[in-house]
């Protein structure tokens, strides 16, 4: 018995030492990864905070009643951003009215009907559009709409923004519908409802929070786009609420005014950037706080 203890004791001690060393190395690596992650997070927060701080400091000086009630004007004439704000709202709303229904229908097809090469191709094209440079979308609409009609228009701008919003709605709708439990579909079919009724009145209703979140994220994406509008709606110094004419927008006005040599135009560019940032921030807060609570 004494001999058995003498032969096994060193092996157990060596194993414990090996395990202890391995555990210590893992703890060190875990702490190192935690420190690096915290440093990366701090750098990102400092960069984002710096951008937001600069926007507030430089843009808040131009916030006045004139900014919201006067159109853009020549330098020194006390112009505002009213036509650009209204133009942005119109083009963003029109793009969502065009893109959201098409994207939702496409998402329903991929989630419940799509099979084979057609579904794979649709999903592949949607993913490609999701990462496509927005300036290419603007050039595409320029060739498709602006060149044949012979002039820039708010409709062309809305169409370009709708293409950018489309893949976000498609992927969100498909993912949310796939999360709906199969038992709900089976219950609907078991009650004698047709497939399209089950999708429309049961599945979409169960996934409405996620689908609406995708639509709001699409709005946040297109609201700050500049490149596609340079080739489609172009901009307008006057009031224009007609989609058939060139239309002003906040991103294009910021782009045009930011490089100006006139101080009042540069101030309006900073103020416009602040308004776009606050608008996108409010949409994201609404998505994460409002719908997040409902989803929970």
TrEMBL record:
Molecular-function GO term, any one: phosphate transmembrane transporter activity
Residue ranges of domain ABC transmembrane type-1 in the record: 85-287
GO cellular component, one term: plasma membrane
Subcellular localization(s) per the UniProt record: Cell inner membrane; Cell membrane
Transmembrane stretches, start-end: 32-57, 84-112, 124-145, 151-170, 198-220, 268-287
Pfam family, one: BPD_transp_1
PROSITE patterns membership: ABC_TM1
Topology within the bilayer: Multi-pass membrane protein
Name this protein carries in UniProt: Phosphate transport system permease protein PstA
Protein source organism: Acetobacter aceti NBRC 14818
């Amino acid at each position: 018995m004494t001999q058995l203890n003498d032969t096994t004791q060193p092996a157990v001690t060596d194993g414990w030492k090996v395990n202890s060393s391995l555990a210590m190395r893992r703890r060190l690596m875990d702490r190192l990864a935690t420190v690096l992650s915290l440093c990366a997070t701090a750098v990102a927060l400092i960069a984002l905070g710096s951008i937001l701080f600069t926007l507030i400091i430089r843009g808040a000086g131009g916030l006045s009643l004139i900014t919201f009630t006067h159109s853009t004007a020549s330098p020194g004439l006390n112009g505002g951003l009213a036509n650009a704000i209204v133009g942005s709202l119109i083009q963003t709303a029109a793009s969502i009215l065009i893109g959201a229904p098409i994207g939702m229908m496409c998402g329903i097809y991929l989630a419940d009907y799509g099979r084979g090469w057609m579904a794979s191709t649709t999903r592949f094209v949607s993913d490609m559009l999701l990462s496509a440079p927005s300036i290419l979308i603007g050039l595409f609409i320029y060739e498709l709409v602006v060149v044949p009609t012979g002039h820039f228009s708010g409709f062309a701008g809305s169409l370009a923004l709708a293409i950018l919003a489309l893949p976000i709605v498609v992927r969100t709708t498909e993912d949310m519908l796939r999360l709906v439990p199969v038992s709900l579909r089976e219950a609907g079919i078991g009650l004698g409802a047709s497939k399209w009724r089950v999708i429309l009145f049961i599945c979409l209703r169960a996934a409405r929070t996620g689908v609406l979140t995708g639509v709001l994220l699409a709005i946040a994406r297109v609201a700050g786009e500049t490149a596609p509008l340079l080739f489609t709606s172009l901009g307008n110094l006057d009031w224009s609420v007609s989609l058939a004419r060139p239309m002003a927008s906040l991103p294009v006005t910021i782009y045009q005014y930011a490089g100006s040599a006139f101080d009042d135009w540069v101030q309006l560019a900073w103020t416009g950037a602040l308004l776009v940032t606050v608008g996108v921030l409010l949409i994201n807060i609404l998505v994460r706080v409002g719908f997040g609570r409902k989803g929970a």
